[in-house]
Amino acid sequence: WKGATQMRGELVTKARISIPSCFGVGTGSNWTDDDLQEALKWLLDDMRFINGGMNVVRNLTCDEQAPLKNPAFRVLLEAQWWGPKGEGRRCS
Questions:
Q1: Domain contains 90
Q2: Domain with 8 in it
Q3: Positions of E strands within 1-92
Q4: Do residues 44 and 62 lie in contact, with contact meaning Cβ atoms separated by under 8 Å?
Q5: What pTM value is reported for the model?
Q6: Is 74 helix (H, G, I), strand (E, B) or coil?
Q7: pLDDT 10s per residue in the chain (92 long)?
């Protein structure tokens, strides 16, 4: 199970770097603390963060008919498996 722990740690590290920009809350965004807390609460309620068609910046909407279509999943998979230090590069 050591491999699972390592992979989880790698994903967390990569998520901290790339996920905020997927939701429009990265550095350089003009969010107040209250707005950011409201947006994060909205994302976590009913697991909305997994849906595609995300619009967090303007009006907190998402396409609930597109589960697992959030671009954040693609970003993480590409970083984990095909990024500069990706596992896919080691296996090829």
A1: no
A2: 2-80
A3: 51-55, 61-67
A4: no
A5: 0.70
A6: helix
A7: 677 888 889 889 999 888 888 887 777 778 888 988 999 899 999 899 999 998 888 889 999 999 999 989 999 988 888 887 777 666 65
